[in-house]
Write a structure and sequence with these properties.
- The chain is an alpha/beta fold and 286 residues long.
- It contains 9 helices and 10 strands.
- The protein has one domain: Rossmann fold.
């Protein structure tokens, strides 16, 4: 009888431990990379017309024992794909889309080029604040109040838009020789070795290649490629970042990456206008 009681107690203790663990896992907060301004999340800030800023695209070829180089042809291909897909993604959510800012920034007259550089620098800083942590609990994702300042006003006034859309892509691919080099080094000294150790052991004391490009979350130093995309919506009147998200690293092309980064982007028709929002946040220019 005592043996049966002890056996029963052991089973109950085991069941209790398993239940406690399951409850602990179930209570873990759901995480997200989405960032939202409180007013945008609560539909207090209405956006109907979005102007797309020139896309910030950088793609590198990681060479064997030389400096990394920008792959200009690949950047042109990615930029063209993203430009088309951004317009499609926004329009299917019910937004009116303006795409002429790229020409105004990069045209022969250089209109808005200085303002664009200021805005790009300001957003890069804002991004650091938004993504000081890669992921946050969903309950905290609509608590971000980050601004790029007053620079957006000039763009939306000229284009008759409510907000600006930002897209930043960064990626790399390794040359065939570099892939072979990394594979051989990995076989000899293991995947856990540092880049510096691997470089010196394979290059005979020559200078090591430059580090991987910024903004790419490489899952492994031995990865053959790395790609990341960041998208954001900036209020034209206040300069506040209304919504942002990131996605990477992935074998998918830029279009598929964009679709996943924008999967949670709210539709315009799901955000009913309040009476005070019947006019654009910034009046159209002449």
């Amino acid at each position: 009888m005592d043996h049966m009681k002890q056996s029963t107690l052991r089973r109950l203790r085991t069941t209790g431990i398993v239940a406690a663990l399951a409850l602990g896992v179930g209570c873990a907060p759901m995480m997200t990379s989405v960032r939202q301004h409180p007013d945008f999340a609560s539909t207090k800030r209405t956006v109907r017309v979005i102007a797309v800023l020139p896309l910030d695209v950088e793609h590198y070829l990681i060479n064997f024992n030389t400096s990394n180089e920008r792959d200009v042809d690949k950047e042109i291909e990615i930029r063209a794909q993203l430009s088309e897909n951004i317009k499609v993604e926004l329009e299917k959510r019910g937004y009116a889309v303006k795409t002429d800012l790229t020409a105004q920034v990069s045209g022969a007259d250089g209109q808005f080029s200085a303002e664009y550089e200021k805005l790009a620098t300001a957003y890069a800083q804002a991004s650091k604040e938004l993504y000081a942590r890669k992921s946050v609990p969903v309950s905290d994702s609509a608590k971000f109040n980050v601004s790029v300042g007053s620079t957006p006003g000039a763009f939306v006034a000229a284009d008759g838009a409510d907000a600006l859309f930002v897209a930043r892509y960064s990626g790399f691919e390794k040359s065939g020789a570099r892939v072979m080099r990394d594979a051989l080094i990995g076989a000899f000294i293991g995947l856990g070795a540092s880049r510096a150790t691997r470089s010196s052991s394979s290059s005979g004391g020559k200078s090591a290649p430059q580090p991987l490009p910024p903004r790419v979350w490489a899952s492994s130093e031995s990865a053959q490629y790395g790609r990341a995309i960041e998208v954001a919506l900036i209020d034209g009147a206040s300069g506040e970042v209304l919504w942002a998200n990131t996605y990477g690293v992935t074998p998918e092309d830029a279009g598929a990456m964009l679709a996943k980064a924008m999967a949670a982007f709210p539709a315009a028709d799901a955000r009913p206008k309040a009476a005070e929002d019947m006019t654009p946040s910034v009046p159209p220019g002449p």
